[in-house]
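Internal QA ticket QA-208
Title: Verify multi-chain structure generation after dependency bump
Assignee: T.L.

Test input:
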Amino acid sequence: MRSETALVLRKLAEDRLALVGLLIVLALLACAVFAPWLATFPEAVTEFNPAHRLRPPDSVYLLGTDRLGADIYSRLLFGARITIAIALVAVGVAVAVGVPLGLIAGIHDGVASNLIMRLADIFLAVPQIVLAIAIAQTLGPSLPNVILALSATFWPWFTRLVYAETRSVRNETFIEATVALGASPARVVCLHVLPNIVSPIIVRITLGLGFTILTAAALGFLGLGAPPPTPEWGRTIAESREYLPDAWWYAAAPGLAIFLVVVGFNMLGDGLRDVLDPRTRRAGRPRD
Amino acid sequence: MSAALLEVQGLSHRFRLKDGRAVRAVDGVDLAVGAGEILGIVGESGCGKSTLGKTLIGVLGADDGTVRFEGAPIQNLDGTALRAVRSRLQYVYQDAGAALDPRWTIGRSLDEALVIHTALPRAERDARVRETLAAVGLHGDQLSLYPHEISGGQQRRVGLARVLALHPKLLILDEPTSGLDVSVQATILKLLVALWKQYGLTLLFISHDLAVVRSICTRVAVMYLGRIVETGPTAGIFTNPRHPYTKSLLAAVPLPGGRRVIDEAWLEGEPPDPLDIPSGCRFRNRCPMAQPLCATDDPTLRPLAPGHNAACHFA
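Actual output:
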């Protein structure tokens, strides 16, 4: 498996778009981890300076200041932490719920399988953002509730994907041969089915992180995210509306950040999809 | 013939279609396999040879009939009981490459059989894998390769090694030589005979290649449309076939310098639809010897010579 990972990374390095995507994602991670050191005003999250409110970008306030006089650049960096936390936890929960359900539904025929898939269909029938708004609104605006709303609307995508992939893999001869050899169902599913469908799951996770960040920003924009003064990107754009178009930097900075991160995850996801495609992988694998 | 290792009576497997009809792929098979035999099962494509093999090992369920292995019934077992049987009764897939997980190295796939069926520590499993690998003529350095990195012949050897590591009693080989070059076929056949002796195996050799069956099998069962229509010692079947279907099968084998196949072959048309098997004898629609009796009475296997049975009223 190690050589396979190395090969995937090498092929990824040849894909310029995917590489740019990877760099953007790594930059986002760096911003989140090193926010206190990268920020020019680390106290900007909680301390405000009304005298300097709505300053345009200059050498002191790199991206200008907001309505309370806080440095937007510094707040963006801390906002990256929230963005990443929301996306990782929400997608993580969706994977933890959706993948096992998809495996169960894909392996079995019958009532359990039908129940799971119809439940997934019901969730998918409502547009994700509408459902997330409904859930977040009902539970009240807070960070855990946003995460819950996003997970609750995202798991069916994994269930559907894993279900379809499992259905196709379970008809492969090597699955039947493993059963004939005497392997238990748990062994077949965990050691043979799951590893053979992990590539599309990874791609879906990558794309899903970008999509979740976008949805989380939308919820923040609608006031359903963390309460102020949390430096959440969507909320910052919402705050900036009354000061447009004069304070253009106020909306532009978080808007650009969201745009870049979402595009970054999408480019990385598309690149991974190409690299992890078994046909291209097989053609390219060196003999050792 | 020694005591039967595997005894099959009235075994059936039906594939149900969505519209409620059923394909009778295996339809009342009677068969006995003696310990130490190489029994060839021959028949046209689609006659149910592979389905029979898969029903015997329990990958497909038996709708009717019994399968006794070492005296105990094994049809429709599950769980631990089935696993216990499977360490002694194994199936080797026709497409050996597809029967190996593409993401697992050869070594890991070989080891898996032992992980499932034995409690051996890692070092002993390793030793067993290497010993079996040597028996099928492969090298230890091939253990780290992936299935698509080795040739078709090597894949067959790996498929054999995988089940041989368990030291089974009975192996069901599904078309072990199909899709291989003739030279590779010969080496695989030689290998099979060598392994048969070395491991004291009993082989159920499913094939449509009569020449191969003739060269390796001690006994032959001819299958037609889901049922065994003739069984007998290889020599008896090939020199004195009794069932008209067997006769036409043998007549269809081209011989260098012999008469043109077309002059002797009786067999016309396709086998009937297994959704709609004819009344009486299932071969009567294609049989040159068919009489009115054949349309009403379904012939069963009856002894014609020592160890030689055929299911025909006029054999």
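Spot checks passed. Residues 280-288 of chain A have pLDDT under 50 and may be disordered.
Status: verified.
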